[in-house]
Amino acid sequence: MPISFQGCAFGHRRGSRVFTRLDLDVPAGRTALIGPNGCGKSTLLGLAASALRPGAGRVSYEGLDPFRRGNLARYRALVGWMPQGIRPLPGLTAREQVGYAGWLKGMSRADAWRRSLEALEAVELGPLADTRCSELSGGQLRRVGLAQTLVHDAEVVLLDEPTAGLDPEQREKFRGIVARIGERGHLIVATHDTADLARTYDSVVLLGRDRVRYAGPVAGLGALAGLGALAGIPGFAGEV
Ligand SMILES: Nc1ncnc2c1ncn2[C@@H]1O[C@H](COP(=O)(O)OP(=O)(O)OP(=O)(O)O)[C@@H](O)[C@H]1O
């Protein structure tokens, strides 16, 4: 199991809890994380990325707990995270921004620089490597964000709504890139883009308020759709 949540409690503010006791083994391979607005998808990814620390319980990747002494840097080198809202760093080109992300993850400057171009090529942005990020479109900037998570060869890639706000053409391109990333390691993608889940993902985790309603193969979601359990998930067309 790539990422495991054991009895996790978390609230962004004192007195409010997104999770009171989350138990979840995220399936291996490509997993879509779906659920209604505000159910905690971004929070779950933030916990998986070790950007958020559970108030109780633990999150681990193959047994590695990021908050155990001395583990944090190693954990973050293994787990890449693309949060919502990638911002261009002032004055930096796409390659510089991606290389900087690699350096922050502990790569040498030379390795980060070399790998940054490969990561940009993996997201089909090689030709724009020397363009300033501030001049890129929203979809292109999202791909820079994706390259930032790939630059250090993470074994698990977490993407928070990577296709939100993209036009259908860019969305389709993104799906292809996501499918290729899934071939190299584990991938967990929070998404409202639920059309055609079976084409892009192996498994689905359906989150409800403070609980996991389903975790398993995409095909198993069909039965839930029949029970109306998917009502209220924006964009969910019913068919998977
Ligand atoms: N920084 C924050 N401070 C306080 N509350 C927060 C913060 N971030 C999220 N929340 C609250 O935590 C809950 C879960 O939010 P989260 O963003 O994880 O849900 P989500 O499923 O990703 O939502 P969406 O589908 O709308 O992106 C919501 O009630 C939200 O209002």
From TrEMBL:
Looking up PROSITE patterns in the UniProt record yields: ABC_TRANSPORTER_1, ABC_TRANSPORTER_2
* Record keyword Transport present: yes
The ABC transporter domain, residue ranges: 3-234
Q: Which domain of life is it from?
A: Bacteria
Q: Which InterPro entries match?
A: AAA+_ATPase, ABC_transporter-like_ATP-bd, ABC_transporter-like_CS, P-loop_NTPase
Q: Name one GO molecular function term.
A: ATP binding
Print the keywords alphabetically: ATP-binding, Nucleotide-binding, Transport
Family per record: Belongs to the ABC transporter superfamily.
- What name is this protein filed under? ABC-2 type transport system ATP-binding protein
The species is Nonomuraea roseoviolacea subsp. carminata
